Amino acid sequence: MALKRRRAKIGAALIIVAFAAVLFSMTFTSEYTGFVLGLVVVNAVAILSLNLLMGYAGQVSLGQAAFVGIGAFTAAQLAQSNVPFPLPIILAGLFAALVAAGVGLPSLRIRGLQVAATTLAFGAVAQYFLFKRPWTSNAGTSVQVTRPNLIATDKAVLLMGLIGLVVILIIDRQIRHSRIGRAFFSIRDREDTAAARGVKVGPTKLQAYAFSGFYAGVAGGLYAYLLQTVASDTFDVFKSLGYVAAVVIGGLGSWSGAIVSGGLFAGIQQLLSGIARYVPVIEAGLLTLTPVLRPEGLGYILNRSVFVHLPWVKPRQEEGVGDVRSAIELIAPPKRPLSLSVPTRTLLTAKDVGVRFGGLVALHDINMEVRRGEIVGLIGPNGAGKSTFFNAIGGFVKPNSGSIHYRGKDLLALPAHARAGLGIARTFQQVGLSGPQTVWENMMFAQHQLASQYGLTAALLSTPQMRKVEKELQMRARAALEVIGLTDYTEERVLNLSHGNQRLAEVAAAISTGPELLMLDEPFAGVGPEESEQLAERLTELRAELDLTILVIEHDVPLVASLCSYIYCFAEGGMLAEGSPDEVQNNADVISTYIGEPLAKEAAGA
Amino acid sequence: MTAIINGVLSGSAYALIAVGFVMVYKGSRIFNLAHAEIGAFGLFIAWYLQQHKMPVLIAFVIGIVVSTLVAIIVERTLVRRLVDRTPLAAVACTLGVAFVLAYYEFLQFGVNIKTFPPPFGTFSFNIGNLTVTSSRIMIFVFAAATAIGLAIFLKGTKFGLEVTAAVSDKTLARLSGIRVDRTRMFVWALAGATSGIAAMLIASVNTFTPLSTTLVLIRGLTAALLGGLTSITGAFVGGIAIGVVEALVVAHTTVLGADYTAVFIVLLVALLLRPQGIFGGSEA
Questions:
Q1: Given this model, what pLDDT does residue B3 score?
Q2: Subunit contact A292:B267, Cβ cutoff 8 A
Q3: CB count, 10 Å around CB of A351?
Q4: What percent of chain A has pLDDT over 90?
Q5: Nearest CA in chain B to A111
Q6: Between chains, do A109 and B87 touch, taking CB under 8 Å as contact?
Q7: Closest-CA residue of chain A to B277
Q8: Mean pLDDT, to the nearest integer, of A501-527?
Q9: Is B106 contained in some domain?
């Protein structure tokens, strides 16, 4: 929490300082300097557009200049048709957003960075085709823009540009600190977790492209008014490269780093004409070296070496929830009273579930029933289909046969993100948290489904409703950390935690949503024996405290036996045995295929 | 008809670029955006030597050597440090390499339009009423031979299988005695050489500038994606397809940039309809 607050303050401080500095300098600088600074500002907006796309959402664009160009030509053409200022800039943003979303369409179908190819190709289309048309650049020449009286001078345009930059920065901040941005980060880091938490992965990608296009379009609009002429060959592949370089050198996802690195290069190129020729080479060189030597980039270095030492940047202490008891009350949903009553109601039913991957039968004829309040174990050798079964419940694998019902609702009819809203929370075999993000950020994202109480507009405007929901998420996150006992690690990045603590953090994230059914995929894997026992104890307590039902995959048979009231054993995709821990442990098939003789004896003896 | 034959011939150069790209992707799981530029760098050196009275065939060979060396240097100094990083890091890094090379060419050799003579002399023959020049045929022959050679190499030789193994499971491959680092370097070297060959062959039928060589990457990438990114056969077919589409477009319209637009549309539609590519899934 502390660090986050600190960053937010840095942001506000930076903006104010920069604004003041420019206003001050404007009183005595020449028109030319105003023009150069204007270019730097416009460049910064364009760079922010790529920072959002690449840094936040993890999507690549190698043709970002095309969107800036589309914005510039849109604004120029609108201005020529006497659309009153500043409408052309806003419309340019919206139109570029639309185009960017279109170019991002393949990201719905292909994973990874192959979309880079479409954006690169689109960059070439824009450069050689779109920007040579009569309706853009008057057939390969240029469009003139007449400035309105309000912004007749370069300095006035600079001021306008600064206002534009600040508006974009505020939008950017709202995105980062709301469910919108958290959804972006999640698709960047872990698409499967994202979907499990209720993020619609495809639409979220398009949203990122659209926002990025909007920023870029606004940058283009500002550019049109600053230069008063938009030429056909301005927005080329090399310009796109410059944006990528600025974002990467600045540190992916660090808006301040991106602006500083972009501004630096733009400034050097304009002001030191002697070495201007070599600036792109240096930039490309740094782009090459940054991912290898300093992947965190300039933003991180700035944060570490400058910002934290600024006198007005002080970490803020957050008040805790108090004691564990009140924390539990906070996250236990009120509609389900705390009780340890005899479990009677069936929560989850699976009937004859079968899953095939091509010719491989991963699961067949699986029947299962999980009743409310139970802790049910799922054991079996590697490749038995346990995780596949979890994935079938979660919606990541589509069964070829059978049915799965949750509270009588047909789960298979719902897409993965919709299932997250039913009160099912899960953890993953490979810890499903975002490593580069802090425990806190992960906790906030885990409650994505709850955050959907406010929409995009509310997020951008920071409405009271949005702030109320965010406040509640923070309370719940804090409460869940308190319940699990991880409050000391709130600001630690997940990848820096011990494996045991990563597992705990994942459980904390899962229970912060106030789930009814908690599905744990090998929560004890890689956790030491002592920590395992503690975790098992904690789970038993949690079941009572939070009225949870737990379905757990685990290899450690004695541990499962002590934890669970009922056990299913899978083997080779089928159900080998089921029953009470004693029944399953003494089942001859289970012993011969899974436990093995000596271990079974040991377990019986223990 | 003329357009189609021309398209197949020039498409085979894109195919060659795409094949190298796929090989690097298979060999190191890195999306090498510098692939085309590494070859282009060899071309510029060869061009420079040829301008200074060196016989074109020797310049051609030196060009290949230069491309190979650049690829090895990039692999040794950068790529090996990127293997365990995020895919985005590799994209950024190789993009940087591409543009360092491109800007260097700019500064060193200028932006004016250049030509490179066909390395195997000039002759031509007729198919019907279509005249085919030696360089166009050589592109096709070289591209086809390289692709077939690589396919055989990867499938049929021990070393080729090691390459495949090293990609699919690094640790297991290492435990089986495969020197993963060495295989990766070899793959990069091979890809660098093919890229150099492709660049010089393309230059021998078209004029070129530092920018045009950079943009060859777009066709190569598109071809590789059409082919499913992991299939050498697919990349080859993809390259030919791109060449034919481009040739048909150029034959039917004089609108500037129509060729890029066509390539983009083909890519967009292909990815939306068949994201796994024409040959996607198969690891041939």
A1: 81
A2: no
A3: 14
A4: 26
A5: B275
A6: no
A7: A110
A8: 87
A9: yes
pLDDT reading at A338 higher than 70: no
For residue A121, give the nearest of B92, B211, B263 by CB distance: B263
CB contact under 8 A, A245 and B90: no
A248 touches chain B (CB under 8 A): yes
Give dist(CA A258, CA A574) in Å, integer.
53
Residues B201-213 have pLDDT tens digits of: 888 888 888 888 8
- Nearest chain B residue to A140, by CA: B256
Interval B157-163 mean pLDDT: 77
pLDDT of residue B97: 95
Say whether B85 and A295 touch across the interface (CB within 8 A): yes
Domains contained in chain B, number: 1
pLDDT of A315: 46
Strand partners, A366: A353
Interface of A with B in 373-392 (CB under 8 A): none
Which residues are within 8 A (CB) of A44 and not within 5 positions of it... i.e. 6 or more apart? A165, A258, A259, A262, A263
Average pLDDT over residues A147-163: 85
Q: Is the pLDDT of residue B280 over 60?
A: no
Q: Domains of chain A (ranges plus CATH)?
A: 2-309 (1.10.3470), 346-605 (3.40.50.300)
Cβ within 8 Å, pair B89-A245: no
Parallel, antiparallel or unpaired: strands A375-379 and B130-133: unpaired
Query: Residue B190's domain spans which residues?
Result: 2-121+133-273
CB contacts of B103 in chain A (<8 Å) are 280-281, 284
- pLDDT value of position A519: 92
**Residue B212 pLDDT:** 83
- When the pLDDT of each residue in chain B is averaged and rounded to a whole number, the result is 85
Asked if the C-beta of A105 comes within 8 angstroms of chain B's C-beta atoms, the answer is yes
Considering only CB atoms, which chain A residues are within 8 Å of B92?
244, 248, 287, 290-291
Chain A contact probe: residue of B78, B86, B93, B95 with most A CBs at under 10 A: B95
Given the DSSP bridges, would you call strands B130-133 and B124-127 parallel, antiparallel or unpaired? antiparallel
Res A320: pLDDT: 55
Q: ipTM of this predicted complex?
A: 0.89
Given the structure tokens 């914005």, which residue do they identify?
A: A71
Within-domain flag for B195: yes
Residue B114 resides in a domain: yes
Which pLDDT tens digit goes with each residue over A49-80? 999 999 999 998 999 999 999 999 999 999 99
Predicted local distance difference test score (pLDDT) of residue A259: 86
Q: Do B33 and A140 touch (CB under 8 A)?
A: no
Question: Given an 8 Å threshold on Cβ–Cβ distance, is A290 in contact with B82?
Answer: no
> Which CATH number covers residue B41?
1.10.3470
- Mean pLDDT highest for which of A305-319, A402-416, B58-72, B220-234? B58-72
Q: Between B87-109 and B210-226, two packed helices, what is the crossing angle to 10 degrees?
A: 150
Q: B214: nearest CA in chain A?
A: A237
Q: If you average pLDDT over residues A293-313, what whole number do you get?
A: 73
- Interface contact A288, partner B, CB < 8 A: yes
SS3 of A595, please? helix
A75-80: long-range pairs with CB below 8 Å, 24+ = A75/A145, A75/A220, A75/A221, A75/A224, A75/A225, A76/A143, A76/A144, A76/A145, A76/A224, A76/A230, A77/A135, A77/A136, A77/A143, A79/A145, A79/A146, A79/A224, A79/A225, A80/A143, A80/A144, A80/A145, A80/A146
Higher pLDDT, A305 or A11: A305
A51, A108, A125, best to mutate vs chain B, most B CBs in 10 Å: A125
Indicate the residue of A118, A121, A295 with minimum beta-carbon distance to B89.
A295
Where would I find the beta strands (DSSP E) of B21-135?
Answer: 124-127, 130-133
How far is CA B151 from each of CA A237, A359, A606, rounded to the nearest angstrom? 33, 27, 59
Nearest to A237 among B81, B214, B275 (CB): B214
- Domain-located, residue B74: yes
pLDDT for position A52 = 96
